[in-house]
Every structure is written in structure tokens, then in C-alpha cells.
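Subgroup meeting minutes
Present: P.N., E.W., G.H.
Scribe: E.W.

1. P.N. recapped why we're keeping a running log of single-chain structure predictions: easier to compare across weeks, and new members can see raw inputs and outputs side by side.
2. G.H. added today's entry (221 aa).
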Amino acid sequence: MIVINKYKSLIFDCDGVILNSNKIKSDAFRKVLTKFNQNAVNEFITYHKANGGISRYVKFEYFLNNILPRYEKIKINKELLLKQFLEKYSSECKLLLCKSEVTKNLKELRIISGTIPWLIVSGGDQNELIEVFKYKKINSYFNGGIYGSPDKKNIIVQRAIMNRTIKFPALMFGDSKLDYDVAKANDIDFIFVTQWTDLKDYKPYCIENAIKTINSVSEII
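Output recorded in log:
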């Protein structure tokens, strides 16, 4: 059983934890890359799903530098393409994220946990997240801040610890290996949320690392 009132901070990933948006992100990536070799795109989507929590900036750079050259021998302006990718992806995501499902009982959990800091620490674009959370009227729940890329998750967490936004003991909810790594590196308790995760092998991974799992954050109400 998870005793929420023993924690002084709660940290949440966004995609797959607060919002049912992992499939949305995969679909948006496919739309952005639709003109490229589909085998390259399929490999990229596999890479994207296996590396949840990493920012779009890093993923698009990986596509341009490591995947695309093996499938298409063409000269490209990587800087220009990256800019175009990011602009189109952001436009696609905003529209789709505003329609995405919010995890159940979030308001009730906010009430139960009192006034302790809640933080979003996401691989998604920070400005985009703030807009979407305002649209969905859940931004006020996250009184510790809504944070995302281009900063990396570990940098965000370390900064929040330094400025004492994150108070200990703290608990993080995530749905990727990166989320767990960030929590572990910063002595933060961690729970893996399984309902919408893209990580296919999460069960053996969680068993191997003795990670607690829940289907959704609504289970701890």
C-alpha cells in the first residue's frame, strides 16, 4: 500500500501518466516524417517507444544522424530539417494533446495530498505543456511547476532539489526507464505507471529492479 501522506513532494511524468498521450506522440512523429523512407520511420518509432521521456529534440537529431543515412543517400540540411520537424511536430501535438484523456481522480489526489509541491517533469516541450494544462484546467494542481524540454529531466529535477521546490521524502510517478533512472539518481522513491506505457518489457524490467507498479495514479486514492 502506498502511503501518500509520508511524502513532501510528488513528481509526475506527463505522457502516459497524467495524459493518455503516448500514442498521440507516435502518430505525430509519423505525420512529421511521412515523406521519408517508411522503413526508416518504422525504426525511428521503435526507437522512440523504447526511449520514453527523451525530448523530441534529441529524437529528431537521432533520426537525422543515425537512422535516415542508412536508408536514404541524399544530401540534407540537417539544421533546417530539424527546425521544420520541431515546428510541425509542435503544431500536431498541441491539437491532439488538447483532446487527450486525463488520468482519473487527479483532483481527488490533489485534495488528499494537501498543499505539498506537485511537479510535472516531462520530455515534452515545456511551453506546449503549460498551454495544454491550462486548456484542460489542471495547471493549478502543479504548484511546484510544469517543466519539460529542451532541458533534460535529470537537470530539471536537480535544479528543483537545489532550489528546494522538491522536498524530501519525494515520490515520482513515471512510465519509462528514464523516469526510473532519474528518480534513482536523485534518491526519489519511484512508482511505475503501467496503463498507457509504451515500454513493452516493463513487467520483467520492474521485477528485475524491484520497482512498484500501479495501473494508474487513481489507484492510490
